[in-house]
Each structure stands twice: as structure tokens, then as C-alpha cells.
Amino acid sequence: MAAALARFARRLPDRRPLLRAVGFVLLVNVVGGLPGLLSSPDTDWFQRLEKPWFYPPSVAFPIVWTALFTLLGIALWLIWRSESAGRRFALGLFVLQMACNVAWTPAFFALEAPLLALGIILTLWTLVAATIVAFRRVDRRAAALLAPYLLWVSFAAVLNFELWRANA
């Protein structure tokens, strides 16, 4: 009986890669979500800002960011498990862009500094584009997973600019 169970267990797929991928997704979502716990758009200052016509409903932000951070987590996992020579550089760029991403929320909401936040998001856009290039050299799938993130950061940069311009 024990031998039959052992043979059956050997035939089951190895779940460790999937568990690691889930771990990367959770890690990126936790890191990305931390600034939202420290500063929020629910301040009087933000509520009083004049918003552009294309400002999305508030419910869109947590949905979009969770989806994007999930894609980033999968992309990061793909790069992490690669043995490519460009892996270290790609991981370093990912960490830099993530740090920049995390810095935007407190700059905008806690410091109430849309111009500073605009500088941060423009830097973020550059780092995300560079990360995509570095990821592409390691794993094209990982680079493709970052494309929606770059599009959202582009939209967010325009939104940040309009919020600054309309309220300066």
C-alpha cells in the first residue's frame, strides 16, 4: 500500500513552482499596497482638488493596481527563476522601479505635493520602460506582462500632470 501511494505521489505534478509564483504575486501586491495603508485619497485636501473629466471612479484604482501587481509578480517570478546572464540587472531594475512606485503615493497624498509626485512618476515611467527592455533580454513573456503596467503608469502620469496643472 505504501509503495502504491509513493508511486502515485511521484506522478503528481510538482507544486513548488506554482507556490513560488503565488509567493511572488503576494509579495509584489503587499509591497505595492503598503503606501495605500499609510496615505489615502480620502483626505480633505484630495477631495477638494479639481479633477479632470477623465478621472476614473475611485473603485477602479484598487482593482487595476491589484491586477497590475499580480502581473508584475508573475513577471518577477519568471525572471527570478531564469538562469540568463541579464537576470541580476533585470531584477535590480525591477527593485528600483518598485521603490519609485512605492514613493509616489506618500509624495502625492501625504506630502500633498503633486509636482513632486509628477517628477517621481516620470522617473517611474523611465524605470518601467528600462525594466521591460531588461526583462525582454531574459524572458519575453515577463516583458510582455509589464506592458499593461507601462500603459497605466502613462495614464497615471497624465492624470498627475492634469491634477497639478488644474490645482496649481
UniProtKB/TrEMBL annotation:
The keyword Endoplasmic reticulum does not apply. InterPro entries: TspO/MBR-related_sf (IPR038330), TspO_MBR (IPR004307). Keywords: Membrane, Transmembrane, Transmembrane helix. It is a multi-pass membrane protein. It is found in: Membrane. It holds the Pfam family TspO_MBR. GO terms for biological process: tetrapyrrole metabolic process. One of its GO terms (cellular component) is membrane. The chain crosses the membrane at residues 21-39, 59-80, 89-109, 115-135, 142-161. Its main location: membrane. Belongs to the TspO/BZRP family. PANTHER family: PERIPHERAL-TYPE BENZODIAZEPINE RECEPTOR, TRANSLOCATOR PROTEIN. This is TspO and MBR-like protein.
